[in-house]
Amino acid sequence: MLRSCVSRLRTLAVQRGLPGGAPLPAKDPWSPRVNPGAGRRERAAKPGCVRGDPRSFSSEVMHMDLSLPNPSWSEDMRLLFDQFMKKSEDGSWKHLPSYKSKFTQETEDIKIYFPDAKLMKEKLSQAQLFPRSLEEGLGFEYAMFHNCVEDRTVCIFQGGPYLQGVPGFLHGGAIATMIDATLGTCAVVAIGVAMTASLNISFKRPIPLGSVVVINSQVDKVEGRKLFLSCNIRSVDEKTVYSEATSLFVKLDPKTRLT
Ligand SMILES: CCCCCCCCCC(=O)SCCNC(=O)CCNC(=O)[C@H](O)C(C)(C)COP(=O)(O)OP(=O)(O)OC[C@H]1O[C@@H](n2cnc3c(N)ncnc32)[C@H](O)[C@@H]1OP(=O)(O)O
Question: For residues 219 and 201, what is the distance between their CA atoms, to the nearest angstrom?
Answer without folding.
Answer: 16
